[in-house]
């Protein structure tokens, strides 16, 4: 069979590249040169990146931008954002500046509990299982002592373990549902290590439990894994001001703006088609900071969207109120983030980003990320309900279109000037390029 290979992982990096070039590329020399152009000239640094994942052939760049002027709980931040989409950093920066002049963002961490589960099959009497669980619970905790010692010294560790009966949903299915405090770590590895020990202890103790019959003694552990749904690891961020204080260059009529903005949020609260796009705009901000700070954006994405659907229908993550002339806009989201562990002390640009953020604790980072999401959503919804999204988005996207057409520096200067007073659309840019090239 062509292009199928066994033992690929054992090849050296250059052997892997040669195999790829021979299997898929017509112009092998250009493809090889491209892959190599993205290698870092510092061999040690390149090796560090090679070893983050498996079968690495080169680096895949994302731009790291910064959004200055964020005032959060009376501290100033410049927020790092790693993202490929134009206009996101500009929108965040613009929203930061807007709210800076109106008291800034307020943010608070509501809770920090993480969750992990041992999923198991038990065939027998649930009352006996409950009695067994009570008997074994202290041993579940004591058998993890060597793993939890350091976390406990810092003030974290296992918070509780519950037995949950899920056999009405799936025959013979039960869980050990455990909660954890992992402080400045996202906690996946700590939690999974504890869970696997719970599973071993639970299974072994059941085998020796005399009140169980033979079938009951043979508990099947299906899996042990943390949950990325963390509705008790919550952060809230908000902005507010008097309606008249919303007045600005873009908001000539603040009363009308506030009402329309609130309507846009209400639509996202009740209409899932809109809510998904609305929340995508929020994630523009959240993912960019999560990535820049070396956190696991898949975990954050999964948890945030589950939270958006927690009441049975997918809804907006942000909310707005207008009460007694005060405009208030807020977000409440679950975020399991780390400022230690994972990539945080390995990736040099992550360390740079964390230093830029004044070495935050995980709680500080939760607040910063929530604020980035709120600011992003404010920028997008403000544009949507005033000028429309395309004006600003296309203004920022202009450079990408010019690069697609390999515009020279001279052409770029002329075209940027031209589009200060003309509407940017893909076709208008193509026309303008053609006209200066003729
Ligand atoms: C794009 C802007 C900011 C232009 O807005 P503008 O008013 O044309 O900007 P300006 O040139 O007057 O500058 C004002 C400030 O904006 C920022 N800014 C302005 N330009 C830059 C730039 N080049 N680089 C960095 N920052 C920039 C910057 O803070 C600047 O202040 P200054 O630095 O001059 O003191 C505005 O139109 C906007 O906020 N648009 C929203 C864009 C957006 O949300 N993009 C996300 C992608 S679209 C999407 O994926 C999500 C969506 C929209 O579908 C979600 C949803 O439906 O809810
Ligand atoms: N489903 C998921 O989300 C999964 C995610 N992962 C990955 O796991 C990684 C995160 O795991 P972690 O356990 O957070 O990282 P980690 O394994 O690097 O552990 C962090 C360790 O740092 C130590 N530590 C030092 N100072 C601390 C402080 N102030 N607070 C807390 N701990 C402190 C603790 O011993 C802690 O266990 C991420 O890379 C993630 O992508 C792995 C498996 C599954």
UniProtKB/TrEMBL annotation:
Gene3D superfamilies listed in its UniProt record: 1.10.8.660, 3-hydroxy-3-methylglutaryl-coenzyme A Reductase, Chain A, domain 2 (3.90.770.10)
Signal peptide location: none
Documented EC number(s): 1.1.1.88
Biological or metabolic pathway of the protein: Metabolic intermediate metabolism; (R)-mevalonate degradation; (S)-3-hydroxy-3-methylglutaryl-CoA from (R)-mevalonate: step 1/1
Keyword hit for Chloroplast: no
UniProt key word Iron-sulfur: no
Uppermost EC category: oxidoreductase
Pfam families: HMG-CoA_red (PF00368)
An example Gene Ontology molecular-function term: hydroxymethylglutaryl-CoA reductase (NADPH) activity
InterPro entries: HMG_CoA_Rdtase (IPR002202), HMG_CoA_Rdtase_bac-typ (IPR004553), HMG_CoA_Rdtase_cat_sf (IPR023074), HMG_CoA_Rdtase_NAD(P)-bd_sf (IPR009023), HMG_CoA_Rdtase_sub-bd_dom_sf (IPR009029)
Recorded superkingdom: Bacteria
TM spans (from-to): none
Keywords associated with the record: NAD, Oxidoreductase
BP GO annotations: coenzyme A metabolic process
Reactions catalysed: (R)-mevalonate + 2 NAD(+) + CoA = (3S)-3-hydroxy-3-methylglutaryl-CoA + 2 NADH + 2 H(+)
Family (UniProt): Belongs to the HMG-CoA reductase family.
Name under which the protein is recorded: 3-hydroxy-3-methylglutaryl coenzyme A reductase
Organism expressing this protein natively: Winogradskyella eximia
